[in-house]
């Protein structure tokens, strides 16, 4: 076989592998844990690893396929180096490197994206080849969007979309919108490059289709980026494009610009009308308010992220370690949000924490070098002004939308493809004398090529097995274990065997395996269909496995809380479980001193061991951390009732009333009053259980005084039901 034929085989093999990648976003791997994430990421890694082995053989065979040291390539190499250092010296280097099934990022993602970039920028050499590749992303986007249409029609379920937001095959409405932004970018690039009118109509239809799908995601951050990007592009086009014979088209663009400004402004001005409020998508898109719960939570998370950054400003905490920072600097005002955040939901803070100030600068250098290269291409007329403007504005919009969300596989693969594309075009304007990889003293040799490829393939096979196939098997093992819980013959034995097999594989998926094992064990404890001995053995197996894991990874706060819950739930099996639960709860509190959930669990533990004063102190601390937290107030008052501390209860009632009087809910103005009524009913019930009917009657009398407020908000029927239930309980 001559060198030319071998080169063709290498190139064809690499292209075949790369052509699969755009369609991974359409694949849902139902046999794996986190089906919208794990399968496509494992597939991406395997495809890139095989392609990398082929590429190594190729560059030793033909120096024309060796990349040049362009600004973009240097930025990527700097990014890889800085983040590698940050991960190595971070809080949990192993976690930073491998990530977890729920995210599938970490340094493994960084390395694979860099390899993906190198392969693409070396092998796709002509504009035609790049446009063919981009077409595959557009086709994949149509498939993903079509799945979204089925969700709009109610034929498919949107797992995270709720009642009106769709998520396509991406599995998250926000991720879907971010992905479609980049698909639209590629469709625009293809539109300006296609010569036929039919082709332009086709890509125009694709763009409109994706915009419609994006609308049904009801994603505000991405929509805001789009609202800013479209007028910006049109203004830049009118200013810079001086192509002869396009005066009529420029007039059309001017009218489109006017519409692009007036439409969102007009929609915002009528946001309070029934036309907008009765449409859940429009209502959500126009409900951006600094006082909104999710917006307030973002500011709180960014605030604690800033505190965490100041602790480790140079290289940060390492990738995938935000949960540690979140726990340590947790702000009690986040009590009404999801319990754990593993991302700051802002790309600036994400890379500040991932890699410190050096990591953020390295990340931003990817955008800076991309835009600089596009400007140079446009100046040298190596790229049309329309295409250059599209890519520059899209780059800015992509970065802007990441202020509100974080990247994932679906956006990474398109963004790095765009980096590789611009990088390839940029190689034509590099200054003379710049060092080129192909000019380094590495001779072309068919023999060396085959040896390098063979050695690379052996290493890749080992990597595929250890870093991909084994965690894939463990991911499937989690699913098998969960399915075994529904076994008709012997669910306990079957479940235990499947979890045992999954843990024996021993990969980075151990954390999720143990979390699911703990969850299943917690359900088993409350199941009356199994004997005490069976439950006890299952609990012992689970707690032993978690304890062994925590000896090596003692910062895993969620597992500390999970095992503490198991010990407390199974306290009747072994008296020592009280002490073990307290140890894990106190350790968890040392990791997150302001987390109210931990204080609630500690209070339960103190109560179970008759440390009543400590329990009351823990609950009071939870109240003091954030007085507007109604559940904290109610937990404190509940224990106070049984301790006959009516003074505390009266203060809590005053606090709860202040909360409802100082709270505003524009969409549900009666919500805080109704919450207060239900809180009173809850305290009434506790008084009755504690054998204090006289205090319960005082609650009843107080509730009656709320009648005028109730009539104001028109909730008489529901209120009447609560009052009647109290009255019936008092007269029994």
Walk me through the structure.
With 732 residues, this protein is mainly α. The chain is built from 31 helices and no strands. The longest helix is centred in the middle third of the chain and has 39 residues. The N and C termini lie far apart (96 Å).
Summarize the amount of helix as a percent range.
over 70%
Please state the average pLDDT score.
Answer: 89
Low-pLDDT stretches:
none
Number of strands: 0
Indicate the radius of gyration in whole angstroms.
30 Å
Task: Explain the layout of strands and helices.
Elements: H1 3-18, H2 38-61, H3 71-88, H4 93-98, H5 106-123, H6 127-152, H7 173-193, H8 197-217, H9 220-240, H10 247-269, H11 274-277, H12 280-285, H13 293-311, H14 322-328, H15 347-379, H16 385-401, H17 409-426, H18 446-484, H19 491-505, H20 510-525, H21 532-552, H22 557-569, H23 577-591, H24 596-608, H25 612-625, H26 630-642, H27 646-661, H28 671-689, H29 693-704, H30 707-713, H31 716-731
Helix pairs in contact: 1-2, 2-5, 2-18, 3-5, 3-15, 5-17, 6-7, 6-8, 7-8, 7-9, 7-16, 7-17, 9-10, 9-16, 13-14, 13-15, 15-16, 15-17, 18-19, 18-20, 20-21, 20-22, 21-22, 22-23, 23-24, 24-25, 25-26, 26-27, 26-28, 27-28, 28-29, 28-31, 29-31
Keyword list:
single chain, 732 residues, mainly alpha, 72% helix, 0% strand
Brief rundown of the structure:
With 732 residues, the protein is mostly helical. The chain is built from 31 helices and no strands.
